């Protein structure tokens, strides 16, 4: 059974694009009229959000929907073991947080996929955003905490809840929505990113500090961005109006055609290309780059800081070229060709099954059987039979993650790698025995 997701119109200054319109005031105006094609990664995340919503609304676990297909736009995503396991981590996290509040004596209200007005923040009429989960905990002494929980299904860079623009705007939208009924003393932002970290990132802020940030950062940025939007038809945007950077450019629809971003890439790599050009211009240049110093570690570090942004820009440019070609618009120097054929599959699984049975194939020849995952085994055994679960748990292993490069700001500790040992021993004798 296919389950289509609900489609919602996005606000110009949406919480999910807050890093873009807050850091780069001209970005919203630049994105007007740009192709708005959702990527497969974004649709994949939407499908996982839909699965999480089913679980939290119905009080079920993700494994209950194994094999179900979720349709997002023109794409279809099956709830397989991997998706079920990762979404369950988020669902369990929400449920455990609710129980933790209750253990402290709080009464908890739960809002799943709540539509929140952000018009008072951005000034855009009717603008709303959808928060994955909002919890309101209220204690007998009148204290109340609002907790905004966000699911990030991507496996890329870890997203922190600390001063997270999207989370802060959702939190203010939720605070404003429920302010007439509760006197909030604290605001908590929680981000679950199960494919990156088993533990969620969370951050607490006071309502007063949150409102100050809204008044001094978010609101002025939206007002400035709206001025660009309203005047872009008769006042052309200037390169200086943009502020390219990794976070603000990541999901910007205009990054493929942004002159400021292209200039940033050129400036980042330009010094090295200029050095090569200077060598090539020498009168005695013989076609070989002799006497040129290779990039040292300092230079590699400078380039690394912009690698993700450059990579994102390159992918965006490729995507935009493909979009133009698919729409019949010529792009000099490139063309469309037929790609690699897809994997073979049965046109009808039922007919194939009937045919193979008629050929008297054995079950083990016709079907692939696979033991349930550790996560599924835990769901079956941990509560009902703790002793049996301990036996099963003893058979579970988990390999360490492979070493990967990360910026110094990453909260994970640095690995200590010893330099490779010299494979040759120093010969201290006269060496006659080697002859």
CATH class of the largest domain: Alpha Beta
- The count of β-strands is 8
Oligomer: single chain
- Give the count of structural domains: 2
- Which architecture of the largest domain per CATH? Alpha-Beta Complex
Count of DSSP H/I helices: 14
Can you describe what's shown?
With 435 residues, this protein is of the alpha/beta class. The chain folds into two domains: 2-240, Lambda Exonuclease, Chain A (Alpha-Beta Complex); 254-325, no CATH class. Helix content is 42%, strand content 13%. It has 14 helices and eight strands. Helix 6 (165-178) packs across helix 7 and helix 9 (259-280) crosses helix 10 (297-326). The longest helix has 30 residues, at 297-326. It starts with a strand and ends in a 42-residue tail after the last helix.
Can you describe this structure in just a few lines?
With 435 residues, the protein is an alpha/beta fold. It has helices at residues 18-23, 27-31, 40-58, 81-103, 119-122, 165-178, 207-231, 246-249, 259-280, 297-326, 349-358, 363-366, 374-381, 386-393, and strands at 2-4, 69-72, 75-78, 107-117, 128-138, 144-151, 184-192, 201-205.
Features:
14 helices; 3-stranded mixed β-sheet; Lambda Exonuclease, Chain A; 5-stranded mixed β-sheet; 13% strand
Strand-helix topology:
Layout: E1 2-4, H1 18-23, H2 27-31, H3 40-58, E2 69-72, E3 75-78, H4 81-103, E4 107-117, H5 119-122, E5 128-138, E6 144-151, H6 165-178, E7 184-192, E8 201-205, H7 207-231, H8 246-249, H9 259-280, H10 297-326, H11 349-358, H12 363-366, H13 374-381, H14 386-393
Parallel strand pairs: 1-2, 6-7
Antiparallel strand pairs: 2-3, 4-5, 5-6, 7-8
Helix pairs in contact: 3-4, 6-7, 9-10, 13-14
């Amino acid at each position: 059974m296919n389950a289509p997701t609900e489609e919602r119109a996005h606000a110009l200054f949406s919480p999910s694009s807050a890093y873009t319109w807050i850091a780069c005031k001209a970005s919203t105006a630049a994105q007007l009229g740009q192709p708005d094609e959702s990527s497969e990664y974004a649709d994949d995340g939407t499908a996982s959000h839909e699965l999480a919503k089913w679980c939290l609304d119905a009080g079920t676990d993700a494994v209950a929907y194994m094999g179900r297909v979720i349709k997002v736009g023109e794409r279809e995503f099956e709830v397989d073991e991997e998706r079920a396991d990762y979404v369950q981590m988020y669902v369990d996290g929400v449920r455990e947080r609710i129980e933790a509040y209750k253990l402290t004596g709080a009464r908890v209200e739960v809002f799943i996929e709540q539509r929140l007005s952000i018009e008072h923040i951005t000034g855009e009429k009717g603008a709303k955003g959808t928060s994955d989960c909002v919890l309101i905990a209220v204690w007998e002494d009148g204290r109340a905490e609002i907790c905004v929980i966000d699911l990030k299904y991507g496996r890329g860079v870890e997203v922190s809840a600390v001063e997270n623009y999207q989370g802060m705007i959702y939190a203010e939208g939720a605070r404003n929505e429920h302010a007439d009924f509760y006197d909030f003393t604290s605001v908590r932002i929680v981000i679950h990113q199960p494919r990156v970290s088993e533990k969620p990132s969370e951050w607490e802020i006071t309502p007063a500090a949150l409102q100050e940030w809204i008044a001094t950062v978010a609101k002025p940025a939206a007002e400035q961005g709206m001025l660009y939007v309203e005047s872009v038809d008769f006042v052309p945007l200037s390169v200086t109006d943009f502020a390219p950077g990794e976070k603000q450019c990541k999901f910007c629809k205009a990054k493929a055609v942004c002159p400021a971003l292209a200039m940033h890439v050129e400036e980042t790599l330009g010094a090295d290309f200029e050095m090569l050009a200077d060598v090539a211009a020498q009168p005695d240049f013989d076609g070989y780059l002799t006497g040129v110093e290779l990039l040292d570690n300092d230079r590699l570090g400078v380039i690394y800081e912009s690698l993700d942004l450059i990579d994102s820009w390159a992918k965006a440019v490729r995507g935009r070229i493909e979009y133009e070609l698919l729409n019949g618009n010529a792009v000099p120097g490139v063309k469309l060709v037929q790609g690699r054929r897809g994997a073979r599959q049965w046109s009808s699984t039922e007919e194939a099954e009937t045919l193979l049975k008629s050929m008297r194939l054995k079950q083990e020849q016709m079907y692939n059987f696979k033991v349930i995952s550790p996560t599924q085994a835990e769901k079956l055994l941990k509560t009902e039979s703790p002793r049996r679960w301990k036996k099963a748990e003893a058979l579970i292993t988990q390999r360490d993650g492979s070493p990967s490069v990360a910026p110094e700001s990453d909260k994970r500790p640095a690995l200590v790698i010893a330099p490779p040992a010299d494979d040759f021993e120093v010969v201290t004798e006269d060496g006659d025995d080697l002859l």
